[in-house]
Amino acid sequence: MARSRFRSDRGLTLRMGGVSFGLGLLYVAFAAVLITVMDGSVIALVIVLGIGWGQWYFSDTLALKSMRAKVVEPHQAPELHAMIDRLCALADMPKPRVAVAETDIPNAFATGRTPNHSAVCVTTGILQRLTAEELEGVLAHELAHVANRDVTVMTVASTLGILAGFITRWGMYFGGRNNNRNGAVGFLIVFVVSLVVYAISFVLTRSLSRYRELSADRSGAYITGKPSQLASALSKISGDMARIPSRDLRDTGAVSAFFFAPALNRDSVSAMFSTHPPLEKRIAQLQQISRELGEH
């Protein structure tokens, strides 16, 4: 966890380490299979690792572009900047870039490869729906993601899924060794291994994603001292998100895992595949913190 005044979370640190180690082993194993059974595998690895590096290095820029968000200066959004300035001072952390996305979808997210190269984005939908104290709770939650560096781990982790998906889709064009029959067998092996790797990486990242949201809720609640305001914001946004048309939610797919509240609707898949923990669990945790702090 990055050094800041956000409360440390040993559970999050251990999970990030475990996920990173597990995905690292998958990278090595997957690369070994590719090099063993396929011609052109080195080219495939170079291409996808290049994409992965670009995704990590430009993660904040890419995420903002995917939401058509614009970076705003203090004179353009003075109240928003003042709120983030205050929270960064409380948390003793670098101030990220501040962006606003013109959409009625009420949400927020943080992105970036390090606390010094990060961005926090809010939508016009969330600005219109929340009170100042509720918005402060949401921003504290997002800043906690940056300070905890779980945004970085999630970005890197997704690269393996990209690699597996790339090989699954395009592996046939790299051929196999020796002859056509061996080439077909080689591609079949890589195809199956790619599916297995994608499934494992999917489960690992989803597990980390759900825990990191609970951790950011805790950190945000403690840094502001107002867990009830964060709970209120969470309830409002979750209710409104369920009424957003599916076609609009699909447009946010690139950053939906990083949203403050999940992009849920009636057609959503089961909680097993969710990037966020159940709303009831998040609210219960915040109520417990409220009692602990003696909040009225």
What would you say this structure looks like, in words?
- Helix 2 packs antiparallel against helix 7 and helix 8 crosses helix 9 (227-241).
- It contains eleven helices and four strands; from the N terminus they run H-H-H-E-H-E-E-E-H-H-H-H-H-H-H.
- The chain has 296 residues and is of the alpha+beta class.
- It has helices at residues 10-37, 41-57, 59-66, 78-91, 124-129, 132-148, 150-170, 180-224, 227-241, 246-250, 279-293; strands at 69-71, 97-101, 108-114, 117-123.
- The protein is 65% helix and 7% strand.
- The two termini are 31 Å apart.
- The protein has one domain (10-293).
- The longest helix has 45 residues, at 180-224.
- Strands 1-2-4-3 form a four-stranded mixed β-sheet, sandwiched between helices.
- A hairpin with a 2-residue loop joins strand 3 (108-114) and strand 4 (117-123).
